Amino acid sequence: MPIVDGWFTDDQDAPTLIGSKCPVCGTYVFPPRDGDCPSPTCESATLDRTPMSRRGTIWSYTENRYTPPAPFVSTTTPFEPYALAAVSLKHEGLVVLGRVARGVLAADLHVGMEMQLEIDDAHADDESQYVVYAWAPATPRVASTGEAKHGAPS
Ligand SMILES: [Zn+2]
Fold first, then answer.
1. Which of 16, 78, 80, 92 is deepest in the core (most CB within 10 A)?
2. Three-state secondary structure of 114-133
């Protein structure tokens, strides 16, 4: 189940962030919330929940090499460093901070890189395996044709 309720769908194939959008001026808000539109020039008192883009580009990133304080729960012992990325969603005009997919560290990232939303395991307790959204490089890895590896010299 999602580690936070209502911020994203946990569809494994196409997870989506859930934001709020002003029905009057189209301003987006993430994390989603109710209430007034944040735009100072808009008088709307309501925001609607809406799915947001699954792809964006890296605006900034960093790497966490030390165990964060609670409520963070490490899923590995010892703690394994992970990257964090602030990803700019062009259509929404927002930057969404998130963990980067397991195994992808800062050295693998650069500003402007295209990222795509994935679902990653967080921690588990007695009742549930929690999942969290994560940013993963969107560019498909170059697939080996398989041809080059057959025909090895004998
Ligand atoms: Zn508005």
1. 92
2. EEEEEEEEEEECCCCEEEEE
